[in-house]
Write a structure and sequence with these properties.
The chain is mainly alpha-helical. The protein is built from 8 helices and 3 strands, in the order αααβββααααα. Strands 1-3-2 form a 3-stranded mixed beta sheet, with helices on one face. It starts with a helix and ends with a helix.
């Protein structure tokens, strides 16, 4: 009887674990994106995967209409969510791609808000602060400079309790017009 009970218990445990599990290949088939997702997973960024899974998001590289856009969270023709990472950054370091995915995974509303953009940018900055390898010389691209800047704002915010990322977003003319501030 004990063996039967133990067998049933193990069966249910495995079944429940599989029901809540995800496979990173469900989100993309691009090897660079999958490497970035493995990095997120290795650093315990499970909330990224929960958001992606909950919103049935796919991730891919593609061209974006504006060169200053790093990535976007959009809907395809069938109403499915897609994170598009600007193909300009296809050769960016894996750590940087992971940060862009982390940022875009935070967007859940059809139209972003100041609060949501602040959360997403803070997540991206925290990931860069965590993933950036000391002693590694990263290419001095717009993306690297942006990540360094927001990571510094994030760290300063952590030190004194001010939200410098929200202040930066709220003072941006782009976001001011987008959020009607």
């Amino acid at each position: 009887m004990k063996k039967l009970f133990l067998g049933v218990l193990v069966f249910f445990a495995l079944t429940i674990t599989q029901a809540f599990a995800y496979n990173i290949k469900d989100f993309s088939n691009d090897t660079k994106i999958l490497s970035a997702m493995r990095l997120l997973e290795a650093h315990g960024e499970y909330d990224v995967f929960n958001n992606l899974r909950k919103n049935a998001v796919k991730v891919r590289f593609d061209s974006l209409p504006y060169s200053n856009v790093y990535a976007a969270n959009v809907y395809d023709n069938f109403g499915r969510r897609v994170i598009i990472i600007n193909s300009t950054y296809k050769n960016a370091p894996t750590e940087q791609i992971a940060c862009l995915i982390a940022h875009e995974s935070c967007h859940v509303a059809r139209k972003a808000t100041l609060e949501e953009e602040t959360t997403a940018t803070s997540k991206e900055a925290a990931c860069w602060a965590k993933f950036k390898k000391q002693g590694v010389s990263y290419p001095q691209t717009k993306l690297t400079k942006r990540l360094d800047k927001i990571a510094n704002l994030h760290l300063a915010s952590m030190e004194d309790g001010n939200n410098y990322i929200e202040d930066k977003i709220a003072s941006s003319s782009f976001y001011r017009s987008q959020f009607n501030l």
